[in-house]
Amino acid sequence: MTCAFIVDPTTHKSNHAHQVKLAAEGLEVPWTNGRQGSETREEHAQRTRRLHDADPGYHRAALRGLEVGRVRRGWTDEAMIEAVQAFHVRAGQWPHQIDFRSANGLPGVGTVARRYGSHRGLVRAAKETSLWRSSR
Q1: Amino acid 78: pLDDT
Q2: Is the pLDDT of residue 12 over 50?
Q3: Percentage above 90 pLDDT, the chain
Q4: Structure pTM?
């Protein structure tokens, strides 16, 4: 016998930490995140095309948003090291993995991992650079 759980919508929270699950024996519920089906993707693509075609201002705003995103993602190694050093000056400590986000003026963890292998690699580079600068 299969047992599925139904989330009580009166207690359902966005973080799922406090949700109440009610047992529903014999009920099978296929899981999907709603983005897997090709129909869903195609419907979304069609809606997006209609929005862009119907409103040139919407299209221009979307393109500007993409351009801003590209510019923002342009972290050079020097800029990343300077951002980590500036964080160190502001916070009085070197950043931890959780600190790597734009709200702290730092690149994201994914960007750091692609360049330095981990956040520790970038912090090590920033420390070495700051030691080099202080010894001059």
Answers
A1: 92
A2: no
A3: 32
A4: 0.46
Does residue 18 share a domain with residue 4?
yes
Angstrom distance (rounded) from CA 136 to CA 128:
13
Domain that holds residue 7: 1-31
Overall domain count for the chain: 3
- Count CA atoms closer than 13 A to 113's CA, side-chain side: 6
95 and 129 share one domain: yes
> Do residues 85 and 120 both lie within one domain?
yes
Judge contact between 115 and 100, C-beta under 8 A. Answer: no
Is pLDDT above 80 for 109? yes
Q: Looking at the structure, do residues 66 and 95 belong to the same domain, yes or no?
A: no
The verdict on 125 and 87 lying in the same domain is yes
Long-range contacts of 49-57 (CB under 8 A, 24+ apart): none
Q: Does the structure show a pLDDT above 50 at 89?
A: yes
Number of DSSP helices (H) and strands (E) in the chain, helices first: 5, 2
